[in-house]
Amino acid sequence: MACVAALFASPALLPFPSTTSSTASASASCSCRLRLRPAVVARAPREQPRGRRALRRFDEVEGVSKKRRGIGGGSGAGGSPPSSSRRDRGLAVDFKESQVADFDDLEEDKFLNAVVKVYCTHIAPDYGLPWQKQRQHSSSGSAFMIGDGKLLTNAHCVEHDTQVKVKRRGDDKKYIAKVLARGTECDLALLSVENEEFWRGTEALNFGRLPCLQDSVTVVGYPLGGDTISVTKGVVSRIEVTPYAHGTSDLLGIQIDAAINPGNSGGPAFNEQGECIGVAFQVYRSDEAENIGYVIPTTVVSHFLNDYQKNGKYTGFPCLGVLLQKLENPALRESLKVPSSEGVLVRRVEPTAPASSVLRKGDVIVSFDGTSVGCEATVPFRSTERIAFRYLTSQKYAGDIAQLGIIRDGNSMKVQTILQPRKHLVPFHVEGGQPSYLIVAGLVFTPLTEPFIEEECEDTLGLKLLAKARYSLATFEGEQIVIVSQVLAHEVNIGYEHMGNQQVMKLNGTTIKNIHHLAHLVDTCKDKFLTFEFEDDFLVVLHREEAAAASSDILKEHAIPSIRSSDLSEPYVETKNDIQKTSEDFGESPVTNFEMGIDCLLWA
């Protein structure tokens, strides 16, 4: 999901953007099906409707500002009466007076100087042609100083970056920045600037506590509508576990009514004391709702920063890897021998999650590290509030141990499990940025990923493959769905040219675990034929030596630099991942909360 803005119809969460200045529509996306994505300032023609709406908001903000300064409202400076001149339009001024306001009273707002503008150049991968990249485009967003020579911004602002530059408020010079870490789940990125001149005379922002409802909040950044810094104000409307559009995850979020527009991405939100209480990152757009923006709270920010400091990289937010059902119905609780109105029912456990060794379908989780879990999958939050159970797991770090209180067959017991980030069979983001691929006699093999699905469009994949992407869980570490995305026509593959988006299951009778395993099987094959078995019992047989001989011609004809991606050149390490798939591994429930159509089911 590059920082680009393609608007979806109807309600949509849009993480706050950078401003894109070229054709970025193809690379812009959180999944269309999720209707969640980063909001970016785009100047492509398709972005015009959104731009007009946003500009109207800016006009309203500017109008309020003018009224406060006393330069509008039908009377000129000094109280002179209105006339048919510019005064009638609320622009009356006295040119004898200085037109430069005295800003000494704003010296105390030095925290504004810690907010910088981010300029990023992106080159997103081409998932349909995985050996190349898409057209370069640029965007802009916001960031702020956090001390120790570092800046904080949104991950979607610097996704697929080739160059990142930052510019301070009131400065004409741009400085090269380096991306130190990206947190896709929490939509945060850490930047550094090596040039000492950039940091001269600057002060880092101080982080504040989690705000309360109705607390005042000020959002600062560089949104569309102008080049200088922008300030909007509002209040905290809601605090709860929120879907993060860029990371397709559920983490704590702050909902505010202050205007957030494309370009505000990565900018700080302040409380009345001038402390940073979070990072602006997404909006909810709907014809039925107004002024719904979201801020990443300091609790999530501190988790991201502590994770990086502890491990030297971002490792992610862990979870249990279980599908839970709420236990509101008394008869359901009685049948499970749950004595009180608490607990959630385990309906599915990911085979790759550590919890699979201690939890099983039918268990009821009643506590997490001593905190009681309610029958609606909520836990106590602050003094008088409750929040989603997912909040407790998100406070942990990868590798931490959690103690669960469970009821199994009417018996209460305690179990312990290690928490790790989820590993999706069909990942939402490609590690390393560039997709893996392998070309065998013109057959282009690549792993199935969400970016590939978005690029190819769901209609071209077929219902069976799409159902696997939405409903299947990985049964062992490193498992992938490997498909043939297309066939590069050549006489060696006559009869197979029209294949596309089909899953390969076996090569010469050996089940394929992932694309690296497939490359290893091809390299070590000594048989006369390469026999590929695809889903739906489709068979492809190639003469091994002829297939190898045709490779150079195919690469030359299609201007492809290599027969495989660089990561597949590494030696393949055989693992004992011989977990057999069972009917439970492919349930009827979606593998993410974004696809869930029933409120009483949720992943944690």
Give an account of the 3D structure.
The protein has 604 residues and is of the alpha+beta class. It has four domains: 92 residues, Thrombin, subunit H (Beta Barrel); 97 residues, Thrombin, subunit H, CATH 2.40.10.10; 104 residues, Pdz3 Domain; 132 residues, N-terminal domain of MutM-like DNA repair proteins. Helix content is 15%, strand content 29%. It contains nine helices and 31 strands. Strands 16, 17, 18, 19, 22, 23 and 31 form a seven-stranded antiparallel sheet that branches. Strand 8 and strand 9 form a beta hairpin. It is globular, with a radius of gyration of 27 Å. The N terminus is likely disordered.
Structure classification = alpha+beta
Count the DSSP helices.
Answer: 9
- Number of beta-strand segments: 31
Residue share in β-strands: 25-35%
Computed over alpha carbons, the radius of gyration is: 27 Å
**Model regions low in confidence, pLDDT < 50 over at least 5 residues:** 1-11, 21-108
Mean pLDDT: 82
Distance between the termini: 24 Å
In the CATH hierarchy, the architecture of the largest domain is Alpha-Beta Barrel
- The fold-level CATH name of the largest domain is N-terminal domain of MutM-like DNA repair proteins
**What is the total number of structural domains?**
4
Largest sheet: 7 strands, antiparallel
CATH class of the largest domain: Alpha Beta
- What characteristic shape results from the CA principal axes? globular
- Helix proportion of residues, in percent? 10-25%
What does this entry show, briefly?
The chain is an alpha+beta fold and 604 residues long. The protein has helices spanning 48-69, 196-199, 298-311, 330-335, 390-394, 450-456, 463-471, 515-524, 544-557, and strands at residues 12-15, 19-20, 41-42, 115-122, 137-147, 150-153, 161-167, 174-183, 188-192, 216-221, 230-244, 249-256, 268-270, 276-285, 293-297, 322-326, 344-349, 364-368, 371-372, 378-381, 385-388, 401-408, 411-418, 438-440, 443-447, 482-487, 502-507, 510-511, 529-534, 539-543, 601-603.
